[in-house]
Amino acid sequence: MTFSAATARAGPPLTLRVHGDRLVTIDQARLPFEVIELGLRDASDCAHAIVTMQVRGAPLIGAVAGFGLALALRAAADDTALDAALERLAATRPTAVNLRWALERVRARVRPLPVDARAAAAWDEAVAIADEDVAINAAIGVHGAALLRGVAARRAAAGRPVDAAAPLQVLTHCNAGRLATVAHGTALAPIYALHAAGVPLHVWVDETRPRNQGASLTAWELADAGVPCTVIADNAGGLLMREGRVDAVIVGCDRVARNGDVANKIGTYLKALAARDSGVPFWVACPTPTVDRSLADGAAIPIEYRDPREVTHALGRGADGTPAELRLVPDGVAALNPAFDVTPARLVDALITEHGPCAASETGLGTLPPFAACG
Ligand code: MRU
Fold first, then answer.
1. How far apart are the CA of 98 and the centre of ligand 1, in A?
2. pTM (2 decimals)?
């Protein structure tokens, strides 16, 4: 079992671990300035961590929610308590479908059981979800790395071989790395796979305003893994693509509709437009639990709107390391803060799933083996 503490030491770094009767993760609200472990002991802790984005990223919030429901059932596990705990956890964030998918999966497992057997079974199911996330992301890494090797081969054929002086250049948006998952990441999994294989590469990291998941989280975990990277302002990617300085764009996703439309962090759509206009491949790392077959297209994907203060203010640390909040916008001026956008399927060159790449379309998704996706 890849997720269990016994094998964790030999495997990839885990963002979520079980330690005794609690979950242990990294408090992502404190990164990159402090690496602080966060213990989650009950369902309220799990819900609070998701709402405050101490844990974030679609697969990770799914896994934490699954454990949260299991922990809730230790207190009360009759049908009323089960449904109430599920809805409380489901209400924490709206866009990433992995959250409800994991909760529904735990509920389906325990509902037929006697009340006194439910908490233990729910815990086992949450462990299975976490284990599967590790395996899914490792497989996405293999398939995505094969796509990137294809780009490297085309570069070599065009007389621009990939080497230490001219590494493969990948651009990513937000954080779809190990911090957003139980392990490996999704969009960063192919990068880690190639880096481990000794392929020279460099990552352009979009800062990802307003919460700066790229600058704070992706840059932190790539640096931690020794992968060369450079943080760029969100608006810089288009220029770099026009100048031929980006070989591929890989992003994650929070929900993929039946037709292949992709909801991901705000700004993803603009990167997809720039990539298409510049002839740069735009790939979406897509674990199948993130596919919502109940939605015909992206128009129905719920978009989270967050506190405008995230736009009007920037959070950081002063020179002395003290947390600081800076106001950026004139007093009295309104701000709007949609946290996700939808990239139309036609701009997506491939969805990289754990089963391999597929077209971002109903037909493409239909080529995948049957899976327990939401809906
Ligand atoms: O608001 P966040 O930080 O939870 O948003 C995260 C993203 O948009 C990621 O790209 C997505 O969840 C995929 S994570 C593998």
1. 11
2. 0.96
